Amino acid sequence: MSPLFGEHRCVIEVANMIPLWHSDEIQAAIVELATGIDEELKHHSRVAVVPLMTGAMMFTADVCSALEVLSPGKWEINPIISSAYGNSFEVGDVELVVAAGLQERLDRCSAIIIFDDLSDTGASLSAVRKFLGGFTDYPIKLGVLVNKTQARRRDVQIDFQCFNYDGGDWLVGYGMDLKGAFRGARCIGAVSSEM
User: Which range marks the domain in which residue 146 is found?
Assistant: First the structure.
């Protein structure tokens, strides 16, 4: 196996950050999450998966791979680009970029699940849920890799989560970034916002 994807030291440790979850723990949690999602949505023949880019790329790819094993051909991926932080630690206005034809693609489905890497303030998930709810009556579920409740500013109900984190640290890895860095790390770590 390539040293890039085999047993290796988490890049978060190399960067002197506190490792929280390693790749094997993340993969096990994703399989468990996918199993729960598949069971919850078993009565829907086609489900729209809406990952919030760019943070949800890795998470959504792995969850959808697991979902395809469980129910092949059922999951239609329709990404939305969402930005709430820009290059700072402060949440700003949520900006959404949506591909043309999204509504028509969603009309082929009978349920929607929005995926994000992290729910902290709830701003992005709330904005996207409101946006999608404006043109569909389908059930809209929310799934995240990490549910970080301490910074919550919006009332969002997370339906599916891999991990819960109640600390105030900035999280990086597996889609989460520090001003653009560490997004591709196959593990998740904590870093102070002063870094």
Answer: 11-82+92-191
Report the C-alpha gap between 74 and 98 in whole angstroms. Answer: 22
Angle value at C-alpha 166, between 163 and 171, nearest 5 degrees: 70
Percent pLDDT > 70 in the chain is 83
**170 domain residue, yes or no:** yes
Per the structure, the count of domains in the chain is: 1
Note the pTM of the prediction, 2 decimals.
0.86
Whether residue 103 lies inside any domain: the answer is yes
* Distance separating alpha carbons of residues 83 and 177, to the nearest angstrom: 12
The Cα-based distances of 122 to 45, 57, 126, 173 in angstroms read 29, 18, 6, 19
Cα 38 to Cα 43: distance, rounded to the nearest angstrom: 9
Q: Tell me how long the chain is.
A: 195
What is the per-residue pLDDT across 131-164, written as a single tens digit (0 to 9) for each?
Answer: 898 878 888 999 999 999 886 677 889 999 999 9
